[in-house]
């Protein structure tokens, strides 16, 4: 029998011989036990058959003894009229004597003593039968004793056969017990003990312990099984060790990957919350700790002019005699920001995971720098846009009011110089006062508008605060319907929308005289729809000529959203301010 091994070699295990086979041994023991049983059964049958008819013969001999007594009694009282009785008793005895050994097998009368005693009885009976009248009582007693001795001989012969039967059964039982004990002993030594050891080896192998050896060596099936299990255990041990090595290697790789991911995650998280220059040293420390050796530095370019890059001077001096330098470019969308420089001792060989970690970190840092620059650019644009809006509002409102006041002051001066009546002078002074009040109100509106800050990162929370603020000012309920996803709008869009809503609610507070108002901000497909409504007295017909209510600022903000602000009557009364723009 041949068993293949993992490495290609072969292991030969001889088949057990027929003489050493457990099956053959079991067959031999079974044959012995069956043979002993058969011998015992056949012997018992023969002895039992030899006992067949013994009890009947003993009974016949006993009845002969009784009949002899009856013949003796009949002979004592013999008379002329009683002779037929004697003859009849003699005839009965004769029949019993002749049928004494009928039945059974022939070997039952092979005992010499029984035959001799039987002959004596026949001889004595012949003497008594010839002259029964002359036979005395003593002769009949002696004849009866002979018959009694025959009965005893027959009993002894039967008891000998019973003793032989007991002996045969006892010997057979003892032999079977001896053979059974030998079978159990050999079974325990060659089967049970090895099986227990094999079960223990298999159980320990299931727990990963392959160091237990099998001591059973035999040229039988269990020996073959032991050698096979020992070989399999060795193979399993090698395979188990190989898998453990693989698991250790994978665990180490996963640990390194996990550490790399943690470093990358912390770097990305920190870069999303802080500016790059605030955490660059922390990123470098964590990288060095995970990499295990070498020096890491981040070199940013100062500026790029005609594809020539100028670096910052704050970098570590590199000793190329003892260090190898690996550079990982900080680049995003064709824009170059610098490098991550890794100085590695010459006797160290960087692994792929280390290079992948540094390149991933370079991508994250480049993305963070790009986002920071983009944010700064957007902030500058937003500031410039807000300044333009302020400048237009100052020009359209406060500057015009100041120009009007300047004209009125010149008019007042000329009237006073000409000495015009006091009524005309007071008229001009009243115009100046109204102009100052109007300019002051416009200034307050501008200050309220441009002081707004969106402190809460959630537009919904900011709107809830605004609605609560104006509901308290107006002394009536203001409904809010907000149905757009969180962080759906850009920061610039959120500022403009919130400013338009605040200005509209401010107009409701100051001019509408309403008892209910509401703000609806919903998303339909890719459009954002805004509606501010109230049930007040509505807008005047000469809205455009009046030039107040902050309409200019609201329209400028709507224009910044690439949209147009609309004013409509509300049903049954009141006003609607409508705005619709594409996100």
Automatic annotation (TrEMBL):
SMART domains tied to this protein: HAMP
Occurrences of domain HAMP (ranges): 189-241
PROSITE patterns: HAMP, HIS_KIN
Principal subcellular localisation of the protein: membrane
Transmembrane segments: 26-47, 164-185
Record-linked Pfam families: HAMP, HATPase_c, HisKA_3, PilJ
Example of a GO MF term: protein dimerization activity
Annotated EC: 2.7.13.3
Coiled-coil spans in chain: 233-260
Listed InterPro entries: HAMP_dom (IPR003660), HATPase_C_sf (IPR036890), HATPase_dom (IPR003594), His_kinase_dom (IPR005467), NarX-like_N (IPR029095), NarX-like_N_sf (IPR042295), Sensor_HK_TwoCompSys (IPR050482), Sig_transdc_His_kin_NarX/NarQ (IPR016380)
Residue ranges occupied by any Histidine kinase domain in the UniProt entry: 393-583
Name of the featured protein: Sensor protein
Organism: Shewanella canadensis
């Amino acid at each position: 029998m041949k068993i293949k091994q993992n490495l290609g070699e072969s292991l030969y295990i001889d088949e057990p011989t027929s003489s050493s086979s457990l099956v053959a041994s079991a067959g031999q023991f079974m044959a012995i036990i069956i043979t002993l049983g058969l011998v015992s059964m056949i012997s018992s049958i023969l002895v039992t058959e030899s006992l067949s008819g013994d009890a009947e013969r003993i009974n016949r001999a006993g009845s002969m003894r009784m009949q002899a007594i009856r013949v003796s009694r009949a002979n004592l009282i013999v008379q002329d009229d009683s002779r037929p009785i004697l003859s009849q008793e003699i005839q009965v005895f004769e029949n019993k004597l002749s049928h004494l050994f009928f039945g059974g097998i022939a070997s039952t009368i092979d005992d010499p003593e029984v035959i001799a005693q039987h002959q004596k009885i026949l001889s004595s009976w012949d003497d008594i039968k010839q002259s029964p009248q002359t036979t005395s009582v003593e002769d009949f007693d002696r004849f009866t004793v002979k018959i009694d001795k025959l009965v005893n001989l027959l009993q002894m012969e039967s008891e000998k056969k019973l003793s032989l039967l007991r002996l045969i059964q006892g010997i057979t039982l003892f032999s079977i017990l001896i053979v059974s004990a030998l079978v159990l002993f050999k079974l325990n030594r060659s089967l049970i003990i090895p099986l227990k050891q094999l079960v223990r080896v298999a159980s320990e192998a299931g727990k990963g312990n392959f160091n237990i050896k099998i001591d059973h060596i035999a040229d039988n099936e269990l020996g073959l099984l032991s050698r096979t299990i020992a070989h399999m255990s060795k193979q399993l041990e090698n395979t188990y060790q190989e898998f453990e090595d693989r698991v250790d290697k994978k665990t180490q790789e996963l640990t390194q990957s996990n550490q790399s991911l943690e470093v990358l995650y912390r770097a990305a998280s920190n870069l999303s919350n802080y500016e790059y220059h605030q955490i660059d040293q922390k990123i470098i420390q964590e990288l060095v700790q995970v990499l295990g050796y070498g020096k890491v530095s981040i070199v940013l370019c100062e500026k790029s002019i005609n594809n020539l890059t100028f670096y910052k001077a704050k970098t570590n001096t590199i000793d190329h005699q003892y260090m190898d330098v690996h550079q990982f470019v900080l680049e995003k969308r064709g824009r170059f920001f610098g490098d991550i420089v890794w100085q590695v001792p010459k006797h160290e060989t960087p692994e792929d995971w280390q290079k992948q970690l540094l390149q991933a970190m370079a991508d994250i840092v480049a993305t963070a720098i790009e986002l920071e620059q983009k944010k700064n650019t957007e902030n500058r644009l937003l500031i410039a846009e807000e300044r333009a809006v302020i400048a237009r509002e100052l020009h359209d409102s406060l500057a015009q009011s100041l120009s009007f006041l300047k004209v009125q002051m010149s008019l007042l001066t000329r009237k006073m110089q000409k000495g015009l009546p006091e009524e005309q002078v007071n008229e001009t002074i009243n115009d100046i006062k109204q102009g100052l009040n109007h300019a002051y109100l416009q200034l307050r509106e501008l200050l309220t508008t441009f002081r707004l800050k969106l402190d809460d990162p959630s537009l919904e929370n900011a709107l809830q605060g605004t609605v609560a603020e104006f509901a308290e000012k107006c002394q009536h309920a203001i409904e809010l319907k907000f149905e757009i996803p969180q962080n759906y709008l850009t920061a610039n869009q959120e500022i403009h929308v919130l400013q338009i809503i605040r200005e509209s609610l401010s107009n409701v507070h100051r001019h509408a005289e309403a008892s209910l108002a509401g703000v609806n901000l919903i998303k339909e497909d890719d459009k954002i729809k805004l509606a501010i409504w109230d049930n007040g007295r509505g807008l005047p017909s000469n809205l455009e000529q009046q030039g107040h209510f902050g309409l200019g600022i609201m329209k400028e903000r709507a224009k910044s959203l690439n949209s147009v602000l609309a004013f409509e009557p509300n049903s049954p009364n009141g006003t609607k301010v409508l705005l619709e723009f594409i996100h």
